[in-house]
């Protein structure tokens, strides 16, 4: 079988319009979310991409083109598979226009047209695990020899349905997210557009393995046994043991219950927890884009030494402290995304230069 490598990446987030700007903002302590008002006097914090435009589609197209170009994928033939990973897709545009015709694939085809993409186009919408599931699907095609290159685009842009829905379920923090924090009150959503260019040609980051486990007994929360299972399956598919992992990129969105569930499950997998990091206090929970966005940011952080800061008290009862700086040597990273509908996904990256 072929191996799948991360050939390039791009990211627009609340930290900045590209990864370079994002790393500078992160090293300076990050940015704060803005407050978005909804009908009925409700308002919630949201990490937004600082690129205003009154037309949702025009804004989305401009950001997506720029991020895809950052990944280097547009320099080639554009004939490999394109995966669009999103929870909300183009609901923001539909809200503005009032036109709710078309199916899930309609928006993915539009994104392909924006990029002048010539290969097959797929939509992956499995709630928060969309980005990692798209990445695992692209890896499968490359490993089986069905593609030499693939592009995963994770997209989550502002809309009223998502923000109002999470607010209505009382899952949002009133001011900021505190992953694994002592006084955490909920998550803060974020906008992101990320592009991951995968290739069979060797490069620094190899996608060593991964897994997806669905257990819907709690439609809005993580299941401890499923977290354990997805970690163990991801390790097994990579040919690794728990002690081979030097860093875990957590889900850790600031949920009082889910953060504790994740920490408890990880202690069942690892006798001694490796270094831990959460990126959601820096860019928010970007839902369907999270897997792609957080991997783009994480690999850039590990390459440059930039690192998120945590200026709040962590919950000592979790016995899972977040690392305050980038670990010195990280060869294998386990990245976890947990989502609605019982989705539990994990992926293992290998830094071949570590």
Low-confidence stretches: none
**How far apart are the first and last residues' alpha carbons, in Å?**
24 Å
Largest sheet: 10 strands, mixed
CATH architecture of the largest domain: 3-Layer(aba) Sandwich
Summed up, the domain count is: 2
CATH C-level of the largest domain: Alpha Beta
Treating each run of at least 4 consecutive H or I residues as one helix, how many helices? 10
Could you tell me the CATH topology label of the largest domain: Peroxisomal Thiolase, Chain A, domain 1
Structural class of the helices, strands and pairings? alpha/beta
Q: Assign the CATH superfamily of the largest domain.
A: Thiolase/Chalcone synthase
The outline comes out as globular
Mean pLDDT across residues: 96
> What is the CA-based Rg, rounded?
19 Å
Strand order of the largest sheet: 5-4-6-8-1-9-13-12-10-11
What's the count of strands?
13
The percent range for helix content is 25-40%
Helices and strands, in order, run as: EHEEHEHHEHEHEEEHEHEHHEE
Kindly estimate the percentage of residues that lie in beta strands according to DSSP: 15-25%
């Amino acid at each position: 079988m072929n191996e799948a490598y991360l050939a390039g990446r791009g990211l627009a987030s609340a930290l900045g319009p590209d990864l370079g700007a994002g790393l500078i903002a992160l090293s300076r302590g990050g940015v704060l979310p803005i407050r978005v008002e909804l009908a009925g006097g409700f308002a919630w914090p949201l990490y937004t991409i600082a690129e205003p435009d009154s037309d949702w589609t025009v804004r989305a197209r401009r950001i997506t083109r720029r991020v895809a170009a950052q990944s280097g994928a547009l320099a080639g033939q554009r004939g490999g598979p394109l995966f669009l990973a999103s929870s909300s897709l183009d609901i923001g545009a539909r809200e503005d226009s009032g036109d709710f015709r078309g199916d899930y694939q309609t928006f993915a085809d539009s994104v392909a047209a924006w990029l002048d993409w010539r290969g097959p186009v797929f939509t992956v919408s499995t709630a928060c695990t969309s980005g990692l599931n798209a990445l695992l699907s692209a890896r499968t095609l490359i490993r089986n020899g069905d593609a030499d290159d693939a592009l995963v685009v994770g997209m989550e842009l502002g809309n009223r349905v998502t923000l109002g829905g999470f607010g209505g379920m009382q899952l949002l923090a009133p001011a900021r997210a505190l992953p694994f924090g002592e006084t955490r009150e909920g998550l803060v959503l974020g906008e992101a557009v990320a592009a991951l260019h995968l290739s069979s040609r060797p490069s620094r980051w190899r996608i060593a393995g991964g897994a997806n486990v669905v257990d819907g007994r709690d439609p809005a929360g993580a299941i401890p046994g499923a977290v354990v299972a997805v970690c163990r399956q991801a390790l097994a598919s990579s040919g690794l043991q728990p002690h081979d992992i030097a860093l875990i990129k957590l889900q850790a969105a600031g949920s009082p219950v889910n953060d504790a569930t994740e920490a408890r499950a990880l202690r069942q997998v690892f006798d001694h927890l490796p270094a831990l990091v959460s990126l959601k206090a820096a860019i928010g929970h970007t839902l369907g884009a999270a897997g792609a966005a957080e991997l783009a940011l994480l690999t850039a952080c590990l390459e440059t030494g930039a690192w998120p800061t945590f200026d709040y008290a962590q919950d000592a009862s979790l016995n899972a402290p977040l690392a305050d700086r980038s670990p010195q040597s990280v060869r294998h990273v386990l990245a976890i995304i947990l989502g609605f509908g019982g989705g539990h996904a994990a992926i293992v990256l290998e830094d071949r230069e570590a």
